[in-house]
Every structure is written in structure tokens, then in C-alpha cells.
Amino acid sequence: VVAVKQLDRNGFQGNREFLVEVLILSLLHHPNLVNLVGYCAEGDQRVLVYEYMPNGSLEDHLLDLAPGIKPLDWKTRMKIAAGAAKGLEYLHEQANPPVIYRDFKASNILLDENYNPKLSDFGLAKLGPTGDKTHVSTRVMGTYGYCAPEYASTGQLTTKSDVYSFGVVFLEIITGRRVIDNSRPSEEQNLVIWAQPLLKDRKKFTQMADPLLEDKYPIKSLYQALAVAAMCLQEEADTRPLISDVVTALEFLAKKKDDDGEKVSKDQSFSSQSESDNGNNESNEVKNDDDNDDDEEEEDEDGDDDDDDDDDDEDDDGDSHNNKVKITRRHSQ
Predict the structure, then answer these.
(1) 108 is in an annotated binding site
(2) Where is the signal peptide (predicted)?
């Protein structure tokens, strides 16, 4: 059984995305990237054939639960997050040159029969900076809500752009909320804006857990997961962790036994730890690494076409900001 995807025949962009996807999936292979079985380019037909992923997308199991579909438990959520992060790690740190995915979202994470995640849809992917360059410049594209703020405002793209998008999806995994949900009250419609004040107060962490989990999760794991999400969502790109550091933290959470795993009760209170005022969540327990990537990125719009790769790579002042996370320090691409 295979899955067949037919691209929009109209316009240069569809053709370009087809070529990018064929190129990337033909050259790069990893257990957490979807496998391209074949393709067809004849006349105006553009068809991609993938391995079949029987459990659909993460979005199907997290945000669009059909009747009768059982919600994902905590351990499965952590397993999916860790596997998706490993897919990004391969693109950022093992591909040469590095690849920036640029469209990391729940609907692009496919699940096999054992809920192992695989990244799909590489039409917007870009080759990352090489040599002395700190970023690539391109027209802003992607999905509104998932894009790093600096990328949306400047068009400067780095691997840390993907790390921000990962943080948004990880927040969706933990909370069960959509990144943009117009059915909620206005102050709760944007997931990241809603989460920011809660991430500064550990006493409110349990308010962020998906109600469908029914309080069945280890409290410490929830705290650690939210700390990782907060790190990935830092405003300044240089203060976000490398994806390899995120993988280290999430592999620990995915393998962690529930022996600390008391359920949380609604009236349980927790002592709060000191937080930083500037939203950098100094209570987080992961130590972030400065990328040599450059300026910051901003919330993006559904950016439509044109992948103009203007090479106006701006020189960053190589000023790295002090990391506030505690993982390992390494250089990013």
C-alpha cells in the first residue's frame, strides 16, 4: 500500500516544490523522514508516491479527534515529539549542507502503525547557510502561527527557525490546543500568546496540560516538557537550544518510567520557583546553545510563493546571547 500526492499543476511554485521534495527525499534517508517510493513528472502531471502511514498525521490524533479515536497518552506524545525532533536533527546536523525544513507543523508529522513519527512535505525546505554565512535570505513562507518571529519580519532563515516551529508543535502536543483557534475567547486564540504568562508561573503549569490526558501524566515530566517548549519559543533565535539538545531532553522524557508518576489532582498546589521577568524562564532546566545563526525571526504569514533566495545575507554581529537553558553547548550550522 502506498500514498499518492498530486501537486497543483498551476504555477511555477508547485513545480519548484515538487523538484525540491524529490531531490531532498532522494538524497536524504532517516527513520524519521517519510520514504519516497517514486514520482511521476509527465506533461503537467506532478505526482509523488510515498510509503503509506496507517495512523495518518499527528493533527488527526491531537487536534481533530474523530469519534471513537482514543486520545494519545502522555508517553506516546513524548515518543512522537522525540522522534520528530530526531528528524529535524538529521536535517540540521547530519545533512551536508544542512537543510532547513521551514514547514514544521502537526499535519506534516505522519505516524506509522506504532506511532513512530516521520516528517513529510519537503516542498518548502531550503539548504541552510554554509561557510561564514549565518543565515539564508528568502521570501517568508510557511504556516501562520508556526513561523519564528524573526523569520517573518526579516526573511532571514536559520536552523533556529525550525526550533521555534518545533516549540509551537510541542506546545500543541502538551496542551491539545491548536496554534490558532478562532473558536476560543480572543485572549486564548493564539496558543503561544496564551501560554507565555503561564510558562512564567510553575503553579499554573498543570492548567496547560491537555484535559484529554485526564491528569494521567508524571508531574515532573510535565514541568520538564514545558521547560523545553519554553526554551524553543524564546524570542531571540540565539537563545533557543540546538535541536540536538532538544532531542537529548525529549529522549529522556520518552524513556522515563512513570515511577515519579503521581497523577495530578486539581487542587494540588506546587511551590513556585523564581522566574525571570524577561520571559526567559530561568526555572527551565535545559541549557541552550547559541547558534551562529543570525538575527531573529517573526511570526509569519501563510507566505505564498516565490522562494526568492536573495542572497542578502546580513552580517550578524556574531553577538551571541547568553543562553538560559541547560543542555549542552554546541555550534549550530
Answers:
(1) yes
(2) none
Which residue type, as a one-letter code, is found at position 63? L
From the options 2.160.10.10, 1.10.510.10, 1.10.8.60, 1.25.40.20, give the CATH code of 55-260.
1.10.510.10
C-alpha to C-alpha distance for 152 and 144, rounded to whole angstroms: 9
215 is catalytic: no
- Specify the DSSP class assigned to residue 186: G
Residues 6+ apart with CB under 8 A from 316: 134, 135, 292, 293, 294, 295
Residue ranges covered by each domain of the chain: 55-260
Q: What is the pLDDT of residue 68?
A: 82
With 0.70 as the threshold, say if the pTM is over it: yes
Nearest to 330 by CA among 295, 285, 293: 293
271 in helix, strand or coil? coil
Short-list 327, 232, 238, 209, CA closest to 281 = 232
Of 103, 210, 245, 295, which residue is the catalytic one?
103
- State the CB neighbour count (10 A cutoff) for residue 175: 21
Low-confidence ranges of the chain (pLDDT < 70): 8-13, 130-135, 137, 139-140, 258-333
Distance CA 177, CA 192 (A): 10
Helix (H) or strand (E) holding 13: helix 11-27
Q: How far is CA 135 from CA 120, 199, 287, 307, in A?
A: 23, 29, 23, 15
The number of residues in the chain equals 333
pLDDT digits (tens, 9 = 90+) for 266-313: 434 333 333 434 444 443 444 444 444 444 444 444 444 444 444 444
